[in-house]
Prior knowledge:
Elements: H1 4-11, H2 19-33, H3 41-44, H4 49-59, H5 64-70, H6 72-81, E1 99-106, E2 112-121, H7 131-152, H8 162-176, H9 180-187, E3 190-193, E4 199-209, E5 221-228, E6 231-235, E7 241-246, H10 253-261, E8 265-271, E9 277-278, E10 284-294, H11 306-326
Amino acid sequence: MVTVQEAYRILGIRSGTEKKEIKKKYRKLMMQVHPDVATSFQENYRYSAQEINIAYAVLMKEELSDVESNSYEGKHHASKKKKNAVWNAPVNVNAFAEREVLQYVEDYDGTVLGNYCVAKGKYLWKTDEDFPLFLLSLYQCSKELLDGIDEKLQRDEVLPKRQQIQAELTYLLAQQFIDGPAILTELVKKEEITSDGDQVFHFSSMLELMAGAEPVKAGEAIYPSGIRNHKLYLKNQAGRELGYLSFLDDRLYYIVIPLFEQKRVQVKIQAAETGSERRRNTTGYQKLNLWVKLLRANTSRMPENLNLQIEELLKKYKEILCIGYKHV
C-alpha cells in the first residue's frame, strides 16, 4: 500500500497540494508516461503509469481496493499483475497471430487518457469489447508482422505501399477474429428460419450512389454487381451499376462483406424510399432493406484459407520491399 507521503513523491508535488493541482499534475504525468501517448520524458521519469494511478487514488482519498474493483485505473493496476490474463472469449486456434485485447484508461472525470492491454491471445471479438479498440488491436498486430519483416531484412525506410499492405492485412486479420454468423444473431433482428434451416436476417442498409447514378424507386429490387476492394457494388434491373452497399452500423461492414466474399450468404435487396439525401462529404445515398440468408452448410466453421491469403500478402510485401530498395 502506497502511503500518502509516497504518493506525493511519486506525483512530484508537495505535501498538502490542493486537489485541483493534484488532478492537473496527474493528467500531465499520465499524458507523458502512458505507453500510448508517451514521449521521451518516459525514459527519464522513475515512476510508471501504474504507480502514478495508485498515487493519485491515494491522494484523492479513494480506497485502493475500491479503485481496483470499480475503476479503469484499478483494472489497469490489476492487468499489470496479469499481463497475459485470460480473456473471457472464444479463441480461433488457427488464427495467424495473437492480438491484444485493449481497454480504455480514464481519469476520475471520465477523460480518456489512453488504452492498455488486458490480455493477449487468439481471442474472437465479442460485442462487449469496444469495436474501435478491437480494430486498433488488429492494426497493431499487422504493424508487428510488417515490422518483423523490416527488421529481418534490415530495412528502416517506410515504402509508400506499406500503408496499403497494412490496411489489407488488418482486414484479413479481422476475419479471423470475427465469427460473422454468431455476431449477426446479436446485432441484427432474426427474421426467420427457412424450411432448410437457414437463418434469414432483415436490417436497414444504404446504397452509396456513384457520381451520376439515380436512386431507384421505393420497393424496386436491387442486385449484387460484384465485389471490388471489399465493397459490394449494386446494380438495378437494367444492369446499370449504381454504387456500393454501406451500413448504418460500421461493425456490419466487417461482418457482412466477408460473408459475401466467402460465399456463405445469399441476399435480397430492395429500395426503401425514393430520392437521395446528401451527406457532409457530398456523397448521395439511398436507404435499403437488406435480407441476408446464412447458408447453414457454410457457417459451421471459420474459413480455412485466410492464413494462406495472409502468407501471400506478407510474401508480396517482402518482394515489394526488396524491389523498392534495389531502386534506392
